[in-house]
Specification:
single chain; alpha+beta; five-stranded mixed sheet; three-stranded antiparallel sheet; about 30% helix
Length: about 130
C-alpha cells in the first residue's frame, strides 16, 4: 500500500512539473508594452474587406478583440472562438468559420492563446471546410 501511494505521489508531482514547465518555457509568451498591430477581416461572400491598425498594450489577441469589440463587431462562441465579425456571423450549417492567419500563416492557436506582437498582421478570413 505504501508503494502505491509513493508512485501516485510521484506521478502527480511529475504532472505538476510538466504543466509548470510547459507554461514557463513552451507556452505562448506575451510581449509587454505598447504595440501597433493590424487586424484584417475578409468575408468575400459578404463583401466584407476591412483593415484596422490598433495601438494596444494587450497581451493576447482575445483581449484586443474584446477591447475593440465595438469597432470590429466581434462575436464569440464557446471557449472564445470567433464566430462573427463586422456584423456577420459564420453559418455553421454551411460549414463556415473565421480562420485566423498571422502574417499570412495559419495560426496554430486560438485568439486566447495568440500573443499580440508589435508589427504583426492578424487576418480573420471567412472560410468553409
Amino acid at each position: 500500500m505504501n508503494k502505491k501511494a509513493i508512485i501516485i505521489g510521484l506521478v502527480l508531482l511529475l504532472g505538476v512539473a510538466a504543466f509548470f514547465g510547459y507554461n514557463q518555457f513552451l507556452g505562448p509568451n506575451a510581449q509587454e508594452g505598447a504595440k501597433e498591430v493590424t487586424i484584417e477581416i475578409i468575408a468575400e461572400s459578404q463583401s466584407i474587406s476591412e483593415s484596422f491598425t490598433f495601438n494596444t498594450d494587450t497581451a493576447f489577441l482575445y483581449d484586443l478583440l474584446v477591447e475593440k469589440q465595438e469597432t470590429l463587431k466581434v462575436e464569440f462562441g464557446d471557449g472564445g472562438f470567433v464566430t462573427g465579425l463586422m456584423g456577420y456571423t459564420a453559418n455553421a450549417e454551411n460549414k463556415e468559420f473565421f480562420s485566423l492567419l498571422i502574417n499570412g500563416e495559419f495560426a496554430m492557436t486560438g485568439a486566447k492563446e495568440t500573443p499580440v506582437e508589435d508589427g504583426t498582421v492578424y487576418k480573420f478570413e471567412l472560410t468553409t471546410w
